[in-house]
Design goal:
The chain is built from 9 helices and 5 strands. A hairpin with a 4-residue loop joins strand 4 and strand 5. It has 208 residues and is α+β, with helices and mostly antiparallel strands. Helix 4 (68-80) packs across helix 5 (85-94).
Length: 208
């Protein structure tokens, strides 16, 4: 029952934000490509600049499944880093451990990836890490603990079962799926990160 409730909530959130956050939401939105509620089919009134920026920030947060406080911290770091703040923001978010577990194909959704990390199934360079926000450095190996490899979710993942709902493995990851291993070979570039976001609007939101 709890799983069904969470799934319905994700579908509703996906429709409100206009972006599929789970495979189930994607299927639902293909059938009903409009916002939830009795006025979902009607044309939206012109949103204010603030509302547009807020929604874009919410879309980015939802795709990584992070809290506002986490987002704010990463934004401040991105702002202090040389280069474009918006690109830095997404590149730093992409180096989170839960994001890379998802990109590697070990999980089907960001929520599942976070759960695998929290439950101590995931290792980085041979050390268990239970913080989804852990920043993986280029060159580090992300892999499943050997005692966890026999569990059904990982057995399915090793066969490539999630590939039908995930984007192609990005160029910054070297994945050996049958061994449940993925190495971050370099820092991700914004242009190759499979996230839907107009990051300039997110920057404008926080710079207000």
């Amino acid at each position: 029952m709890a799983n069904n409730t969470r799934a319905r909530r994700k579908v509703r959130q996906s429709r409100a934000l206009g972006i599929a956050l789970t495979p189930k939401a994607e299927r639902y939105m293909e059938r009903r490509p409009y916002a939830p509620g009795q006025h979902g089919r009607s044309r939206r009134k012109q949103d204010s600049d603030y509302a547009v920026r807020l929604r874009e920030k919410q879309r980015l947060r939802a795709q990584y499944g992070i809290r506002e406080a986490q987002m704010t911290r990463v934004f401040e770091e991105a702002r202090r880093t040389s280069g474009l703040t918006g690109e830095n923001l997404i590149e730093l978010l992409e180096m989170r451990l839960d994001a890379l577990v998802l990109r590697a194909g070990f999980a089907r959704t960001i929520a599942q990836a976070r759960q695998l990390v929290v439950h101590r199934h995931i290792m980085v360079d041979g050390q268990r890490v239970d913080r989804p926000s852990f920043r993986v450095a280029p060159g580090q190996l992300v892999h499943v603990h050997e005692r966890s490899e026999k569990f059904e979710p990982f057995q399915l993942a090793a066969t490539g079962a999630h590939r039908d709902v995930l984007p192609a493995v990005p160029g910054y990851l070297d994945v050996t799926l049958e061994k449940l291993q993925a190495r971050l070979t370099r820092r991700p570039k914004r242009s190759e990160i499979p996230v839907t976001c107009e990051e300039n609007l997110v920057v404008e939101y926080y710079a207000r």
